């Protein structure tokens, strides 16, 4: 009976629809009559049918990993993309094993870390199923000796596979982390994912000239291959704190040699928000998961050329510092397929630099190979 009444009410209402009002059922095409700015935007910028048909929209589910559980004074954060090589998954990350928890940069000593990523090396873990992980007994890449750049801490690695060799890019801090300390990106290379890793003597990327957006440090190098070139995305900073603080922007630099030199895009910064970088090939372009900070935080963006990004979706509770399992990250197929899982970091004590982080698994459906019809 209730249904019948509703149906009658609907039928009675139908003739009263005015073309001046947006109808109850969202039209497929942009209306040809005046609409509000919000409705116009729905067609100019977004899919009016929301996220169901949006390939670059996803929710995220998080699961603890076995083998990398929270341990006092051991921190694991900023994982690279996950690689699958001969049936084994590999990941590298910032690893800190110290005598104490972080004590703040002012009180840091040779053995007491200032921040969560201080006194760190690059560690490696492997897994047969993506859930159970085994960490190596020793770091994959150790801090270089004094006075080399990075003797205080090396962190936030990004992995690249190029012409059968492996390259790890990472921040190289010395004499201390934080503050106005100049921080370039160094690179180490290996013939196999299990090393041995060799430090390259010259930095791969250096901060941009004084006065520019990325003049003191380069964070979170994230390589991807597109149109035959290596693209490294990174977060830059001109100043650590204060009104000019625009740390949360990202730039890109290009090279056809993994050891550099890399040439920064003349359009940098190319992403105006975010924090840790997460860039991956998608279709014939490059996509970026932009989380945490800035006016376009918590979005996924896409660019045909790697330099001009457009917001494609708004996401909720995105992974922090995600390292997706992205099989085509370096194959330059021109048909990037996206991903369905990866590792990210979580700071169980609520974030910040003053405690330990853990790696966790995230699952999602940012893959063109997911059957979207079943969600409609
Ligand atoms: C990371 C990065 C930068 C920060 C710290 C270490 O996730 O964003 O590198 O400085 O945390």
Element layout with pairings:
Blueprint: H1 2-13, H2 37-44, E1 61-64, E2 74-77, E3 83-85, E4 88-97, E5 121-127, E6 133-135, E7 153-162, E8 165-173, E9 185-190, E10 198-199, E11 217-226, E12 229-237, E13 249-255, E14 263-264, E15 279-283, E16 285-290, E17 299-303, E18 310-314, E19 323-324, E20 336-346, E21 358-367
Antiparallel strand pairs: 1-21, 2-4, 3-4, 4-5, 5-6, 7-8, 8-9, 9-10, 11-12, 12-13, 13-14, 15-16, 15-20, 16-17, 17-18, 19-20, 20-21
Bound molecules: 3,6-anhydro-alpha-L-galactopyranose (AAL).
3,6-anhydro-alpha-L-galactopyranose binds at residues 78, 117, 155-156, 171, 219-220, 275-276, 321.
GO molecular function, one term: hydrolase activity
Protein name: Glycosyl hydrolases family 43
Signal peptide: 1-20
Short structural summary:
It comes from Novipirellula artificiosorum. By secondary structure, this protein is mainly beta.
CATH homology-level superfamily of the largest domain: Glycosyl hydrolase domain, family 43
Structural class: mainly beta
Top CATH class of the largest domain: Mainly Beta
Helix content percent band: under 10%
Radius of gyration, taken over Cα atoms and rounded to an integer in Å: 23 Å
């Amino acid at each position: 009976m209730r249904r019948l009444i509703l149906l009658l009410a609907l039928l009675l209402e139908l003739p009263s629809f005015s073309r001046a009002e947006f109808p109850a059922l969202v039209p497929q095409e942009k209306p040809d009559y005046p609409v509000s700015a919000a409705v116009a935007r729905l067609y100019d910028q977004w899919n009016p049918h929301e996220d169901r048909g949006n390939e670059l929209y996803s929710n995220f589910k998080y699961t603890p990993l076995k083998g990398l559980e929270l341990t006092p004074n051991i921190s694991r954060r900023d994982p690279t993309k996950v690689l699958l090589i001969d049936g084994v998954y590999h990941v590298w990350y910032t690893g800190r094993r110290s005598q104490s928890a972080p004590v703040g940069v002012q009180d840091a000593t040779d053995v007491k870390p200032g921040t969560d990523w201080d006194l760190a090396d690059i560690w490696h873990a492997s897994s047969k199923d993506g859930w159970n992980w085994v960490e190596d007994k020793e770091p994959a890449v150790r801090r270089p000796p004094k006075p080399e750049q990075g003797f205080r801490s090396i962190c936030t690695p990004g992995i690249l596979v190029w012409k059968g060799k492996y390259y790890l890019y990472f921040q190289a801090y010395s004499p201390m982390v934080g503050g106005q300390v100049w921080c370039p990106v160094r690179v180490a290379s290996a013939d196999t994912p299990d090393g041995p890793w060799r430090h390259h003597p010259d930095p791969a990327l250096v901060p941009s000239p004084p006065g520019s957006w990325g003049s003191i440090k380069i964070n979170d190098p994230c390589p991807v291959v597109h149109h035959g070139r290596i693209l490294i995305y990174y977060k830059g900073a001109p100043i650590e704190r204060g009104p000019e603080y625009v740390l949360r922007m990202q730039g890109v630099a290009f090279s056809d040699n993994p050891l550099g030199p890399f040439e920064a895009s003349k359009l940098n910064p190319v992403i105006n928000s975010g924090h840790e970088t997460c860039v991956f090939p998608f279709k014939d372009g490059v996509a970026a998961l932009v989380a945490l900070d800035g006016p376009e935080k918590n979005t996924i963006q896409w660019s045909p050329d790697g330099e001009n990004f457009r917001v494609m979706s708004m996401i909720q509770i995105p992974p922090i510092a995600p390292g997706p399992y992205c099989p085509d990250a370096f194959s330059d197929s021109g048909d990037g397929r996206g991903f369905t899982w990866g590792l990210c970091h979580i700071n169980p004590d609520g974030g910040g630099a003053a405690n330990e982080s853990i790696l966790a698994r995230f699952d999602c459906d940012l893959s063109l190979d997911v059957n979207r019809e079943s969600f409609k």
